[in-house]
Amino acid sequence: MRKNEGRRRQASRALAGRGAFHSPLMQPAREELASAIETTSFRQPTCPVYQNVNALPSKEIVAIKKNLVDQLTAPVRWTQSVQNMVKDGATTFIECGPGKVLQGLVKKIAPGAEARSF
């Protein structure tokens, strides 16, 4: 029997947060966000955009806009997003901004991938 055989993979992980982001408690902000997104000009992506609301790639602007609004009140599917990106050929992940939380999560989800932050 292998070391990790028989263990279930953790499907979720609690992260420290400062608000009710990605939960139904954000419902009051949906209309304002939807309006802002609808009036924002989007350009056609040159590569698939993976959104955490469904963890799937898309190049369709209508779907991307809808997913941005849905993300406000939906759980984050980070593990599935990273797994799908790796399955589709991603080997390098770059976190932009302060901190290294996402970089650390990528390293746990996809140990063979390169993860950096800037």
Q: What can you tell me about this protein's structure?
A:
Mean pLDDT is about 85; it is low at about 1-10. The chain is α+β, with helices and mostly antiparallel strands and about 120 residues long. The chain starts with about 25 loop residues before the first helix and ends with a strand. The chain has a two-stranded antiparallel sheet with strand order 1-2. The chain has a two-stranded parallel sheet with strand order 3-4. Helix 1 (about 25-40) runs antiparallel to helix 2. It contains four helices and four strands; from the N terminus they run αββααβαβ. Helix content is about 35%, strand content about 10%. The protein has helices at about 25-40, 60-70, 80-85, 100-110, and strands spanning about 50, 55-60, 90-95, 115.
Secondary-structure content class: alpha+beta
Indicate the percent of residues in helices. 25-40%
Number of helices: 4
What spatial form do the alpha-carbon principal axes imply? globular
Strand order of the largest sheet: 1-2
Characteristic terms for this protein:
single chain; 118 residues; alpha+beta; two-stranded antiparallel ribbon; two-stranded parallel ribbon; 36% helix; 12% strand; globular; disordered N terminus
